[in-house]
Design goal:
Keywords: DNA-binding, Phosphoprotein, Transcription, Transcription regulation. The chain is α/β, with parallel strands linked by helices. It is about 50% helix and about 15% strand. The N and C termini lie far apart (about 40 Å).
Amino acid sequence: MIRVLLADDQVLVRAGFRALLDAQPDIEVAGEAADGEEAVAKVRELAPDLVLMDIRMPLVDGLAATRRITGDPELAGVKVVMLTTFELDEYVFEAIRSGASGFLVKDTEPEELVRAVRAVVDGDALLSPGVTRRLIEEFAARSKEPAAAEGLAELTEREREVMALVGIGLSNEEIARRLVVSPLTAKTHVSRTMVKLGARDRAQLVVLAYESGLVRPGWLG
């Protein structure tokens, strides 16, 4: 079973997510939290596989709570997917930098939410349609001169190629078509690249791709 913690200050939102997720044969809601402080405490108490974390919450917001969760080595197995009302949320960039594995708008279709939970727990990153491109454009806008790319030296030529494709927002299936390999092979390359670079998940590969200079502003095709 995939165990999920719901963190949102709106009772009705939590109730709706709970009803949807508990109806799935492989997913259960392990607990709920109404603010970031409670979310961190519940994560430590319940050790869920995934947290659906609202960004805007009282006391401690979702961004700060995510940093505390992803920064705690004892909680390394817990994934966080951020929730917001707007795709153009100003915190998208910082949420991914803080270690979130995905980003969804609250009006996401039910089947997409369920797919997101399964995908993130399986090791993939998940961003709402439209958010990936905006995130990448934000990286491009903020990009500075890249730092020395020490970690890239450990990658094979194919792994560097795959990382660059991840950096421009392609999914495993799109990478597979681009390189004429199977989706499983593409996923394997992505996974090996994350291990070699110490990336928490696919989302952070985008960060590293830009910060290392492997992908530069304007390479959004």
